[in-house]
Amino acid sequence: MKNEYIVDDNLNVLRQIKGCSVDFVYIDPPFGKNRDFDDFDDRWNDIPLFVNEFLHPRIKEVHRILSRKGSVCVHCDISASHYIKVMMDSVFGYNKLINEIIWKTGGNSKTKKKMYKSHDTILAYSKTAEYTFNPIYKPYGEEYFKKNNPKMCEIRNEYYSSCAIHNSQPEVVKRPNLRYEWNGHFKQWLVSEEKMKYLHKDNRLTYSKTGIPRIKRYLNEMEGVPITDVWLDISTIQNGEKLDYATQKPIKLVERIISMFSNEGDLVLDCFAGSGTTGIAAIRTRRNFTLIDKNIKGKKIFDKRFRETKGKIVVKNTKKKKVDKVSAFFQAKPRSIIKKKG
Known about the structure:
Elements: E1 4-7, H1 10-14, E2 22-27, E3 35-36, E4 41-42, H2 47-65, E5 66-76, H3 81-92, E6 97-104, E7 119-126, E8 137-138, H4 142-148, E9 151-153, E10 158-164, E11 179-182, E12 185-188, H5 193-201, E13 205-207, E14 213-218, E15 225-226, E16 230-231, H6 251-261, E17 267-270, H7 277-284, E18 288-293, H8 296-310, H9 325-330, E19 335-338
Helix pairs in contact: 2-3, 6-7, 7-8
């Protein structure tokens, strides 16, 4: 079932997938909005029933098919997020929660009886403690400079931040071998005396007025500012991206999620695939995919998106005799399976 869009009830398909064979799952299921979106019916009068009777058996199958390094991200909002988290805890274990991600969705509707909802929630759970996670960093920007006030090194002509290089509680964590005098100060340092001499010679120390050193961390040698669990920098659907499918999510959002929780060549699954954004994000990040949805309209939209995306992908190492599996996929056509009910 690799690199396929399967049109069928997702529970039926999930039950046919081999256990421990999927590396990452992203799902954007119905939110329990009690609305008919035309592309899918989200009318549930009882939210606990929706979570326990509809979502729960599907999440149990997701847990079964995930590999040991696998994880799942469930996209939801306040309509059912608290019920979904309790259910996820029961399947994966409360200690397997990786993050609760808050994604700012925007919006400017006015309401007089309550605050306007402007975010979604993405619950990330792992199957084991050995899950894949790739931190993502943003470049140092104006906000970082205002908050951290990095200084310019006159010798290297580069910005740096600094941090303490001595232990502020030496009696709690005793390291006699790291206790020595430096620049007139006897302290328990975080590095050996030999290392301290190297840092001083390499212009990696800055000194206070009293002569206490701090270690310099040059910004150009650091990875950047790690993104946190509150995402404010990804807008909702951009111009030219909107398709004729309800509740479509932005490609940048799904690409970030996939990039964080899987590696190139991994198999990514979405069993509420809709217009296939997860599949497109997988292609663009060099992952394999399996998409499932019972609405054939979603498959038709995805097939068109696939052809358009494939034409923009530059396949690497195609001159070699042996082409890696992901590159080979880019040169192939998508497989589509339509299963008849009954």
